[in-house]
Amino acid sequence: MPRISPRLTTLNEDGNDGWGVFYRARRMVAEGQPVIELTIGEHDIGTDAAILDAMHHAARAGHTGYAMVPGIAGLRQAVAERVQARTGVATRPENVLITPGGQAALFACHMGVCAPGDTALYVDPYYATYPGTIRSTGARAVALRTTAENSFVPEAAALDALARETGPVSLLVNSPNNPTGVVYPRAALDALCQVVADHDMWLISDEVYDTQVWDGTHISPRALPGIADRTLVIGSMSKSHAMTGSRVGWVVGPEPMIAALIDLATCTTYGVPGYIQDAALFALQQGPDMEQAVAAPFARRRALAREILAGQNTVGLVPSGGAMYLFLDIRATGLSGEAFANDLLDTCGIAVMPGESFGASSAGHVRVAMTVDDAVFATALRNLVAFAETRAHGG
């Protein structure tokens, strides 16, 4: 057959998409084996019934045809008002494009800023799709490494050196961070934004976990002085409202860029189904109480985890302030994250994500999604610690 485009065959540079343990766990479940899945960020509570009722009503009322490609007017307005209220930055509907989830927003942003052959930076550790998304635009994806010793917070000096070396057009950041849960402090963001401005780069800020903050304060870089005109913000209903399968996200940015991204959406996704947008609008209209109810289980389980982990010194907990994950340091076992996760799955029937799935900086770590019932979660975490202690002592 004719060739497959190099844009696709090079998405996973080393042939590994990072999801091997997850796929293996799902195969085991399909075969009837008991597995506690702590892999992906999928809420165990599901989408609220009231949101589903709103979706059903909108569909039955006939909103099943083509919706406006930029998003329905009410939802764009609601997102603009939400962003302005949370950041203090003036935001109009014309600053908003509704997308089929945060992943489509991520792709759109990089299509908007990258020409083929450009270099785009992203912070390591990273969500597993980041480098492939950048490569899909024809750009070169280059990681800005961080260290466990600095709690995986990116440093401005390292960014400046990498920018001088590679001449990038953009930097992608994610706070609260997946996989680490780290919330970037104001001083770090200020310093990063200064480097971004100095090198005339775009800043792409993935803020899908902005309602899941346990310690510290979420700061949107768009709210920092002098950076709004070079910043694109990615948001989503997936994490804030447990609407992962509904695929509703957005990009917020300068009006000329949003207008260009609308042209892209017309040629690619052609928008989001109207009845799903209606449900998202209903969800946003419920205010912060609904968002807090969705976030509450993760805050509760994080507290449980800290109690369990406080009683031992084999498994370290990366100091984190947000998101629905724990990032655990298992280097005392002598195992890589990949080996630990596979061995844990085979021995204990517990599935976690290897740190190496999220980049070289997080080798020797594993990510644990806090996405099962409290009692099951606590038991699984205790078993993980016991397993780690056995491996650390040569078992």
What does this structure look like?
The chain is an alpha/beta fold. It is built from 14 helices and 13 strands. A hairpin with a 7-residue loop joins strand 9 and strand 10. Helix 7 runs parallel beside helix 8. The longest helix has 23 residues. It is globular and about 60 Å long. The termini are far apart. The model has no long low-confidence stretch (mean pLDDT about 95). Its cofactor is pyridoxal 5'-phosphate. It is an enzyme of class 2 (transferase). This is Aminotransferase.
Structure at a glance:
With 395 residues, the protein is of the alpha/beta class. It is built from 14 helices and 13 strands.
CATH topology tier name of the largest domain: Aspartate Aminotransferase, domain 2
Assembly of the depicted chains: single chain
Strand composition percent: 5-15%
Biggest sheet: strands side by side, in what order? 2-8-7-6-5-3-4
- Described by the principal axes of the CA atoms, the overall outline is globular
Q: Averaged pLDDT, please? A: 96
Which structural class do you get from the secondary structure elements? alpha/beta
User: What is the CATH-assigned architecture of the largest domain?
Assistant: 3-Layer(aba) Sandwich
CATH class of the largest domain: Alpha Beta
Number of helices: 14
Ends distance: 51 Å
Domain count: the total is 2
> Main β-sheet, in a few words?
7 strands, mixed
β-strand number = 13
> Helical residue percent?
40-55%
State Rg. 21 Å
